[in-house]
C-alpha cells in the first residue's frame, strides 16, 4: 500500500471537512445572534467536529439513515447571513422541512425565519443576575452549566456564590473544587483566583464569593448585583418561611430551591408543569433528581395508556448525606458505610410526582436503595395500565418522544446491550429509558420501565431550565409547525 494512501473513507473525510467549517458558523450564530442550535435535542453549541458528526448520525433513529452534514451545512451558512434574532433551531427538523418544501435554501429560510430575520440577536430581554447560595455538588455543576451559557443564547449571568467560610484558604479550595471533579472531569476552561477581592474568574466571568451564614444580612447591591435570582442548593430550608429569608436580603427578587419544597410551594419538573410558573412566583422548588427523572416518562405513559397504580424503586448513587464508614446518623440505615453497602432507605419521589402531575396523586408508592456508586441512578417503574400495550409499542412511543416530542429535552432513549451506569455520567436529560430492559406482562396491562438518570448533571440541567423560565427567557423555536 502506498504511503500516501487515505486512511479514512471519502465519505468520512467529506463530513469532517464540512463539520470543521460549520464550527465557527455555529459559534457566530450563538455569540452574535443568541441562536442555539441542536439536532433532535442534542446541542451543537460549543461542540467539536466529531461531536457534530455524531449528532448527525444520531438522527438515524428518525431518518433510518444518518443525517448528512452536507444537508445541514447550507442551512447554517445561509442563517449566518440573515442577522437573526434570538431563537432555538433544530437543524434536523429544519432540514426535513426544507426537503419537503421543495424550495431553494434562501427562499425557504426567508419564509421560516421571517419573524426574527434582521433582528440581530434581539429577543432575550434584560440579563438576569444569578446567585448560587451554597457551592456543593449541585452548586458547582450549576456554575459549570451557567458559565457554558455565558457567551450567548441565555440571559442568565452567574454573579456570585454565597458560602460559609471554613478555612483561611477557603477561596482556593472552592476554586479547586470547581476546577477538578472526580466524576465529571476537569472544568472546560480557565480559572483565576483573586484572593484580595474574593473573586473567582472562570472563562472570563467574575464570580464574587460572599461569605455569610445569614441570608438576610447579605447586601448584593454592594457588588453591583440587582434583582438577583437566588438558587438555594443547600437544602437547609425547604419551606416558604425559611426561603423567604433570601428575599429579605438587599438586591434579590426570586428564589429557586434545588430540593423538594414543602407545603404549598410549587414543585416544578421542567417540561411537565413548568408552564405553571408565573411572573408573580417568587419562591419555587425544582423538586428532586428522582422526581425529575421519572415524571416526564410517567406523563408520556399516563397520557398514552393511563396509569391505574404503580411502584417506583430507585437504585440511587450514594450521596454526601451518608457516612463513609459506620457511624451515627439520624436517619435509619444511612449511618452504615456508603461505599460497602446497599442501603435500603425511603424516598418521597413517587408521592412528589403528584405535585407536578396531579392525575397520578395517590397512585404511586416508592422506595430507594442507595448503592456504592458515586453518580448515576436508576428508577424501576412498575405500572398497571388501563390500556394494553406491548414492549415494541411502548418503546417506540418513548423513543419517538425522546427525538421529536415536547419532552425530548427531558427524556432520552437507549437500546444498546452494553450500557452501564457510567455511560450516563454527563447526560443532560432528566431520565433515559433503557429500551432493552422494558417488560410488559399480564396481557399488556403491566409495564416495567428502567430509567437511568445522572442525579447530579441531568438534574442540574433541569434546574437551569427552570431558572430560565423564572427569568422570563422565552424565545421562538424553529422550525415552526
UniProtKB/TrEMBL annotation:
* The enzyme's E.C. designation: 1.2.1.12
Q: Which GO terms describe its molecular function?
A: glyceraldehyde-3-phosphate dehydrogenase (NAD+) (phosphorylating) activity; NAD binding
Q: Does the keyword Hydrolase apply?
A: no
Superkingdom field: Bacteria
Q: Which Pfam families match?
A: Gp_dh_C, Gp_dh_N
Q: Which top EC class is named for this enzyme in its record?
A: oxidoreductase
Keywords, alphabetical? Oxidoreductase
- List the Gene3D superfamilies hit by this protein, alphabetically: Dihydrodipicolinate Reductase, domain 2, NAD(P)-binding Rossmann-like Domain
User: The Glyceraldehyde 3-phosphate dehydrogenase NAD(P) binding domain covers which part of the protein?
Assistant: 128-289
SMART domains registered for this protein in UniProt: Gp_dh_N
The entry assigns this protein to a family as follows: Belongs to the glyceraldehyde-3-phosphate dehydrogenase family.
Q: Spell out the NCBIfam families in the cross-references.
A: PRK08289.1
Q: What is this protein called?
A: Glyceraldehyde 3-phosphate dehydrogenase
Q: Which organism is it from?
A: Micrococcus cohnii
Amino acid at each position: 500500500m502506498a504511503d500516501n494512501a487515505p486512511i479514512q473513507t471519502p465519505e468520512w473525510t467529506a463530513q469532517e471537512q464540512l463539520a470543521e467549517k460549520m464550527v465557527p458558523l455555529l459559534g457566530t450564530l450563538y455569540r452574535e445572534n443568541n441562536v442555539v442550535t441542536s439536532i433532535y435535542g442534542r446541542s451543537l453549541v460549543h461542540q467539536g467536529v466529531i461531536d457534530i458528526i455524531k449528532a448527525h448520525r444520531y438522527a438515524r433513529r428518525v431518518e433510518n439513515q444518518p443525517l448528512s452534514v452536507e444537508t445541514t451545512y447550507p442551512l447554517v451558512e445561509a442563517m449566518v447571513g440573515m442577522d437573526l434574532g434570538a431563537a432555538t433551531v433544530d437543524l434536523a427538523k429544519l432540514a426535513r422541512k426544507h426537503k419537503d418544501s421543495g424550495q431553494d435554501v434562501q427562499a425557504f429560510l426567508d419564509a421560516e425565519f421571517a419573524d426574527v430575520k434582521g433582528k440581530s440577536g434581539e429577543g432575550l430581554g434584560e440579563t438576569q443576575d444569578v446567585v448560587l447560595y451554597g457551592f456543593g455538588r449541585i452548586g458547582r455543576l450549576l456554575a459549570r452549566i451557567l458559565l457554558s451559557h455565558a457567551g450567548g443564547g441565555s440571559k442568565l449571568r452567574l454573579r456570585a456564590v454565597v458560602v460559609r467560610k471554613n478555612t483561611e484558604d477557603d477561596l482556593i479550595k472552592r476554586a479547586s473544587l470547581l476546577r477538578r471533579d472526580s466524576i465529571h472531569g476537569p472544568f472546560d476552561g480557565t480559572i483565576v483566583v483573586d484572593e484580595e477581592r474574593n473573586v473567582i474568574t472562570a472563562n472570563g466571568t467574575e464570580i464574587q464569593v460572599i461569605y455569610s451564614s445569614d441570608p438576610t444580612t447579605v447586601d448584593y447591591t454592594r457588588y453591583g448585583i440587582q434583582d438577583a435570582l437566588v438558587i438555594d442548593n443547600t437544602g437547609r430550608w425547604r419551606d416558604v418561611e425559611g426561603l423567604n429569608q433570601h428575599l429579605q436580603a438587599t438586591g434579590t427578587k426570586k428564589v429557586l430551591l434545588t430540593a423538594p419544597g414543602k407545603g404549598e410551594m410549587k414543585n416544578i419538573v421542567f417540561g411537565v408543569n413548568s408552564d405553571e410558573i408565573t411572573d408573580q412566583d417568587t419562591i419555587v422548588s425544582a423538586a428532586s433528581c428522582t422526581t425529575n427523572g421519572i415524571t416526564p416518562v410517567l406523563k408520556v405513559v399516563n397520557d398514552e395508556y393511563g396509569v391505574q397504580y404503580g411502584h417506583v424503586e430507585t437504585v440511587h448513587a450514594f450521596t454526601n448525606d451518608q457516612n463513609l464508614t459506620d457511624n451515627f446518623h439520624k436517619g435509619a440505615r444511612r449511618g452504615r458505610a456508603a461505599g460497602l453497602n446497599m442501603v435500603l432507605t425511603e424516598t418521597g419521589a413517587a408521592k412528589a410526582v403528584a405535585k407536578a402531575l396531579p392525575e397520578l396523586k395517590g397512585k404511586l408508592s416508592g422506595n430507594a436503595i442507595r448503592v456504592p456508586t458515586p453518580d448515576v441512578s436508576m428508577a424501576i417503574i412498575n405500572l398497571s395500565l388501563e390500556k394494553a400495550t406491548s414492549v415494541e409499542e411502548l418503546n417506540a412511543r418513548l423513543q419517538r418522544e425522546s427525538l421529536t416530542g415536547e419532552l425530548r429535552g427531558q427524556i432520552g432513549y437507549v437500546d444498546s446491550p452494553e450500557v452501564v451506569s457510567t455511560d450516563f455520567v454527563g447526560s443532560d436529560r432528566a431520565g433515559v429509558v433503557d429500551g432493552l430492559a422494558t417488560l410488559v406482562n399480564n396481557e399488556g396491562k403491566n409495564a416495567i420501565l428502567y430509567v437511568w438518570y445522572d442525579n447530579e448533571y441531568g438534574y442540574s440541567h433541569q434546574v437551569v431550565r427552570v431558572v430560565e423560565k423564572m427569568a422570563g427567557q422565552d424565545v421562538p423555536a424553529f422550525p415552526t409547525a
